[in-house]
Predict the structure of Glucosamine-6-phosphate deaminase.
Amino acid sequence: MNIYTFKDDESFVETAASIISSLVHVNPHAKLGLATGSTPVGLYAKLIEMHRKGLVSFAGVTTYNLDEYVGLPENHPESYRTFMNEKFFNHIDIPLEQTHVPNGNAEDLEEECRQYDQMLDTYGPVDIQLLGLGHNGHIGFNEPGDSLSGATHLVELQEKTRTANARFFPSIDDVPTHAITIGVASIMKARQILLLVRGEDKAEIVHRALKGPITTQCPASLLQCHPNVVVLLDQGAGRLLV
Ligand code: F6R
């Protein structure tokens, strides 16, 4: 595991963007596993900027997102499909049909999970999986517990996750209670993992995930078993690592 801590936002974002753009330069048909949330917003903005300057093209790239809320209309401002379109896809040259986000409005959600998984099995593994880290140690929406699912599945979001995400909604009551997430097996199959974490409020969970015991009670701790993980932290998030 290669862990880097950055003093300033600009170098944090530039490093993340250069990891993704170099991969796309070497392989213009790269498969990218993408994440939402506040952490990768700067990375997406930097990649858009690089694309506008003619430094990177995503025309041949295929993307697979980690997760989606259940029950938000696709064009809801907080659906992860809307997030990805607005924060990234609409500003680069990727055809939208090469982008994939689970459908949280599928009539048969179990079947949607099965099909998303089958797609990942058929076209995966992704060349790089971008991840953020939840305050409770979740990756994707794989919440801590006595066991974890390997496959794409329907998950009930924990109170801590809903509270953290309430900042994007009018109130906590508007935060969906369920989501679809890819499982830890799919995450672990990625050729490379790029974990981004910022903020002092994540310092404790960063320490547990990277230095603590490997346990389903902290899903991100499983990343310690992956052979190719790059972790980028800001100083706040890396505070407890020595
Ligand atoms: C998002 C996702 C989540 C977030 C995590 C951190 O697709 O899967 O695991 O990465 O909740 O969110 P932020 O970046 O908002 O702190």
